[in-house]
Specification:
The chain is mainly α. It has a domain of about 180 residues: Serine Threonine Protein Phosphatase 5, Tetratricopeptide repeat, CATH 1.25.40.10. Helices cover about 75% and strands about 0% of the residues. It has 19 helices and no strands. Helix 12 runs antiparallel to helix 13, helix 14 packs antiparallel against helix 15 and helix 18 packs antiparallel against helix 19. It is elongated. It starts with a helix and ends with a helix.
Length: about 325
């Protein structure tokens, strides 16, 4: 499983992006319900974080009303956010034993199994969640459904089943085409299937939205190498170095790529960003203007040119 190391590096971003924007109302409802209790008992100076205090409230709610599935799902979501995976699974199992089609429990269960390294166990709850939601009239704007497709794709990738991962990830991207993590995972799937051209397209999409996506540049290096495109590999190595703030190494590779690929806008753009970081603003301006000539509708390049010109003006 050659990409497991890369998966581990992006888990924190995924949790922030998905768990707290999954569209589940359970945690919000529970916190509103227990708001007065929080204020009365816990608004004080001590060593507990607000998240710890919220968990206290939800644990009390579950103990006082153990048959309430909403409270258990809300507690499971908080446990997931804290990395308390076994506790999260315990809560979702309790709900699903009585309410096997509870979508909140299914989604949190699937995410938790994925994050805890139990990808095989994640498949069933995620697929069931998708079956319950995909025919809804609002499916194409369903953030929770997009989340389920994403984690299903990641789980299949981890299990080296790229042929099953890619359709799930493409479904996630049909709901949210700007999801850099889904684009990256789709790139890994295509790469595992030896479709390196497609993989590069996905990786390029990922870095368009997250310019310092180091793992995506690593994916580009692998696919460009497989396609015997050493000059493009130099570009990807330069951008990987740039994302790691190794600007001298980035300059070396990107200058090489620029000379070999004079019509490749991305190489000029990456070099402009590198020169900017090295405070070589006049060189940065030359490179960014060439990049914009080659790719005149690229908003990121336009923004960078404005920033570089403002920096030059500020220097007098």
């Amino acid at each position: 499983m050659k990409f497991l190391g890369r998966l581990n590096n992006i888990h924190s971003r995924e949790l922030i992006k998905y768990v707290w924007t999954a569209g589940l109302a359970f945690a919000a409802i529970a916190l509103m319900f227990f708001g007065y209790y929080y204020k009365d008992r816990y608004v004080r100076v001590d060593d507990k974080s607000p998240l710890d205090m919220s968990i206290d409230q939800l644990e009390i709610a579950v103990r006082e009303n153990p048959e309430n599935p909403e409270a258990r799902v809300a507690l499971a979501e908080f446990y997931l956010g804290k990395g308390l995976y076994s506790q999260a699974i315990e809560q979702t199992d309790q709900v699903l034993s009585t309410f096997p089609e509870n979508t909140g429990a299914l989604l949190i269960s699937g995410i938790t199994y994925t994050r805890s390294g139990q990808s095989q166990k994640a498949i069933a709850p995620l697929e069931k969640f998708i079956d319950l939601r995909r025919d809804d009239p609002m499916a194409m704007s369903d953030t929770a459904l997009q989340t389920a497709y994403y984690f299903l794709g990641e789980s299949y990738n981890t299990l080296d089943q790229a042929d099953k991962a890619l359709p799930a990830l493409e479904a996630a991207l049909r709901i949210n085409s700007t999801d850099a993590d889904a684009l990256f995972q789709a790139g890994l799937s295509a790469q595992s299937m030896n479709d390196h051209e497609k993989a590069i397209a996905f990786f390029e999409g990922a870095v368009l939205f997250v310019p310092d996506f180091t793992e995506a540049y690593a994916g580009m290096i692998e696919s460009y190498t497989a396609l015997n495109k050493p000059d493009h590999s130099d570009y990807a190595r330069g951008m990987q170095a740039f994302s790691l703030k190794d600007y001298k190494t980035a300059q070396k590779y990107l200058e090489s790529a620029r000379e070999a690929l004079p019509d490749f806008a991305s190489a000029h753009f990456g070099l402009a960003l590198t020169y900017e970081q090295l405070n070589r603003l006049e060189d940065a301006l030359i490179s960014i203007k060439i990049a914009l000539q080659l790719d005149p509708n690229n908003f990121s390049i336009q923004q960078a040119q404005e920033r570089i010109e403002a920096a030059i003006k500020a220097q007098g």
